[in-house]
Inverse folding.
């Protein structure tokens, strides 16, 4: 058996290759230089934020001290604090804004947005999107010049000492060795740079590689999981031999989305939708109505059955992989990793605050994230304490354990089957005895009450025995399957690589992106246009308000459906609406006639059914 | 034979997969649409035959409400033509038949609703009832699946909260 490699050697052996997107300005860096450039602030309830450590004075060692802590206090770092600018730098608002605009121009020069995100979704989503953008004015948000300032600060840090680094942790859990690659980006400029949902200072992303030991004790990669927004569970991970997992040697390739730094397995443009859920009772009503329409009436309802949220705000993650490549065979090599060993260093375990500006955004999108160990609310994050469960791997045995796990479960089932057989035998005997008692008391008037009670108990016991037999039969079938599965695992066979994936996040296809320029222009102007027309009708044509509103809505609906190729769905929906109105009219006009007709139909059906039975 | 007849069509226009079973509802709808056309035409002919048009034309006065109601049957002509085309589409197993049929039935119900609001002629009720049943039948999941087999959203949904 070979000697166990060190954690750092393991991390370096499987470290990922990052393929970034052209236009991205921030790349993974070591936290030390970032922290040194930041000031530390505290926000106590009901008070203005207070700077407790000025920029340049903070180190990884002093970070966990968190002065002025108290109930409800939030500590946060500020990377783009104008007061942190070195002497001689222009600090006026105009200068900062000019710098931000210059940075934005630089990004836009090299980055071209894909075909309109708005053209991919309907009116309601576009309208909600507009409202969401407007709420940014009222919500806490990262200032407009922050991205530009962060870019300047980051560039300065890179000029001093260019380096690309990750923070590695090796966690061992339930037979798996989890290589956690924590990637720290100084800024997320998804909103200001790439038409995304949010901006925030600091961005922690992660890539996990799951190793299992071979019979010879060698670690072998089995799974990978890339963090992508708040995805968790089975859909997040891929098996190492999945063709979707691109590799350079033993290094998995990660396509990093511009601005958001979400990680993807394949290059492309990903439509990411932020769901705005309905209030629970309304959602329950709609789910029930939809289920009745689809299941009971067999009608087409469109979309997925589980698609409960009717409002979605579309955003596009551009993970094109056409920018800087970091890692094995790339444009830049990884620097030495900062290994997070056990016990975790104090900058990980002791600092529970945010790693960037606390914008006090109620949606939290504009607030900086907490560190690798914590959530924003200071609880420990699942990816830290349960990296196996985070990717849905807690139910998956390692290849070496698969056959044993199946046989172990089969053993459990065998034991249970024995118990079931014994219970069924005992209850069957009891059932026969009760049957004899019921026969004995039948026809004896003074024992009528007892006879009824016995028959009730017989019915109950009979149902119980039936359920036990059904369970036994099911257990037998499962036991056989487990034996067969264990055999297959022992012979080295494996499950299909993608069997666990129910909804893989995939890039938009060429067909989905095939929007004409007219459709894009229409998507951009239609929401504003429809609102202006509504206002114009309300002001100038009040006499024909309803009819003109109906006509204009119909026009916009058909134009929209035509552009988006949804004419069939629109015609179907309009027809259902018309049919509902017509049905109500018919019901109102012919209520009693319809009742009589329904009774007649039922009676004729019963007659036909009975006659058919007679003829047999 | 259905499979032979489909062979000469343009790709994407004919129904996919020559599954004999799936043609049954298609032909049924085609026949029901033909029946609808026949009924409306017969109803129209009957209603028109009840009016003395020579007298109406020669009288030079505003026609009575009954005459206007009968005349309003003309409004069904476009919908009937569309229905006939849709029926032919279904009988020839064309994919476009569904959309045409849906538009025609929507038009029929639309005209019925307008007539109901304006005149409430008696003939509007049976036509309305028939068209409502046709709309529901056309919207049955299995029927739509025959014409638009890929028309189901199966794509992944994005995350619920963006960080």
């Amino acid at each position: 058996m070979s000697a166990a490699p060190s954690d750092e050697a393991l991390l370096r052996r499987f470290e990922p290759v990052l393929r970034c997107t052209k236009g991205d300005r921030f790349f993974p860096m070591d936290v030390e230089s970032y922290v040194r450039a930041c000031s530390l602030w505290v926000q106590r309830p009901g008070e203005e934020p207070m700077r407790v450590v000025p920029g340049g004075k903070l180190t990884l060692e002093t970070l966990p001290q968190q002065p002025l802590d108290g109930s409800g206090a939030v500590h946060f770092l500020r990377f783009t604090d104008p007061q942190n600018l070195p002497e001689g730098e222009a600090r006026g608002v105009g200068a900062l804004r000019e710098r931000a605009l210059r940075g934005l121009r630089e990004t836009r020069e090299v980055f071209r947005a894909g075909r309109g995100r708005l053209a991919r979704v309907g009116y309601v989503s576009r309208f909600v999107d507009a409202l969401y953008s407007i709420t940014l004015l009222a919500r806490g948000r990262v200032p407009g010049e922050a991205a530009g300032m962060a870019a300047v600060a980051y560039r300065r840090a890179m000029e001093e000492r260019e380096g690309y680094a990750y923070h590695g942790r090796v966690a061992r859990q339930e037979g798996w060795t989890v290589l956690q690659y924590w990637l720290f980006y100084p800024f997320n400029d998804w909103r200001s740079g790439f038409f995304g949902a949010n901006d925030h200072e600091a961005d922690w992303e992660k890539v996990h590689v799951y190793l299992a030991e071979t019979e010879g004790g060698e670690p072998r990669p089995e799974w990978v999981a890339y963090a992508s927004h708040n995805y968790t569970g089975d859909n997040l991970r891929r098996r190492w031999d999945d063709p979707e997992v691109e590799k350079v040697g033993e290094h998995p390739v990660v396509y990093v989305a511009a601005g958001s730094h979400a990680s993807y397995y394949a290059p492309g443009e990903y439509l990411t939708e932020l769901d705005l859920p309905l209030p629970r009772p309304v959602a329950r009503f709609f789910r029930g109505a939809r289920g009745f329409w689809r299941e009971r009436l067999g009608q087409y309802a469109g979309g997925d059955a589980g698609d409960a949220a009717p409002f979605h705000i579309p955003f596009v993650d551009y993970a094109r992989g056409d920018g800087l490549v970091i890692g094995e065979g790339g444009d830049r090599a990884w620097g030495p990793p900062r290994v997070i060993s056990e016990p975790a260093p104090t900058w990980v375990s002791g600092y529970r605050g945010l790693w960037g500006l606390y914008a006090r955004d109620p949606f939290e999108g504009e607030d900086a994230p907490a560190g690798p160990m914590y959530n924003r609310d200071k609880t420990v994050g699942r990816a830290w304490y349960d990296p196996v469960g985070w990717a849905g791997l807690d139910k998956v045995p390692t290849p070496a354990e698969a056959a044993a796990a199946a046989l172990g479960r089969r053993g459990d089932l065998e034991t249970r089957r024995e118990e079931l057989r014994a219970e069924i035998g005992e209850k069957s005997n009891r059932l026969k005895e009760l049957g004899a008692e019921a026969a004995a008391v039948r026809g004896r008037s003074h024992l009528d009450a007892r006879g009824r009670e016995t028959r009730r108990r017989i019915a109950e016991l009979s149902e119980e025995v039936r359920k036990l037999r059904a369970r036994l039969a099911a257990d037998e079938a499962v036991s056989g399957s487990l034996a067969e599965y264990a055999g297959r695992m022992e012979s080295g066979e494996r499950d299909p690589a993608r069997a666990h994936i129910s909804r893989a996040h995939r890039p938009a296809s060429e067909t989905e992106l095939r929007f004409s320029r007219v459709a894009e222009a229409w998507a951009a102007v239609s929401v504003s246009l429809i609102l202006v027309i509504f206002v114009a009708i309300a002001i100038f044509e009040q006499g024909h308000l309803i009819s003109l509103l109906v006509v204009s809505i119909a026009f916009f609906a058909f134009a929209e459906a035509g552009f988006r190729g949804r004419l069939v769905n629109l015609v179907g929906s309009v027809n259902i609406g018309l049919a509902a109105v017509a049905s109500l009219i018919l019901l109102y006009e012919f209520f009693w006639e319809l009742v009589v007709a329904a009774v007649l139909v039922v009676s004729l059906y019963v007659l036909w059914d009975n006659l058919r039975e007679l003829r047999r | 034979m259905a499979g032979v007849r489909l062979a000469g069509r343009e790709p994407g226009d004919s129904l996919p997969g020559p599954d004999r079973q799936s043609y049954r509802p298609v032909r049924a709808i085609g026949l029901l649409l033909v029946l609808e056309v026949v009924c409306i035409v017969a109803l129209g002919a009957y209603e028109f035959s009840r009016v003395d048009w020579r007298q109406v034309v020669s009288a030079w006065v505003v026609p009575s409400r009954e005459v206007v109601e009968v005349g309003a049957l003309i409004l069904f002509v476009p919908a009937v033509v569309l229905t006939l085309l849709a029926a032919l589409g279904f009988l020839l197993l064309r994919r476009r038949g569904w959309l045409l049929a849906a538009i025609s039935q929507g038009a029929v119900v639309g005209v019925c609703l307008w007539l109901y609001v304006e005149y409430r002629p008696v003939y509007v009720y049976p036509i309305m009832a028939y068209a409502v049943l046709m709309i529901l039948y056309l919207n049955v999941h299995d029927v739509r699946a025959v014409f638009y087999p890929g028309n189901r959203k199966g794509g992944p949904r994005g995350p619920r909260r963006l960080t």
About this structure: The first strand of chain A starts at residue 17 and ends at 19. The mean pLDDT of chain A is 86.
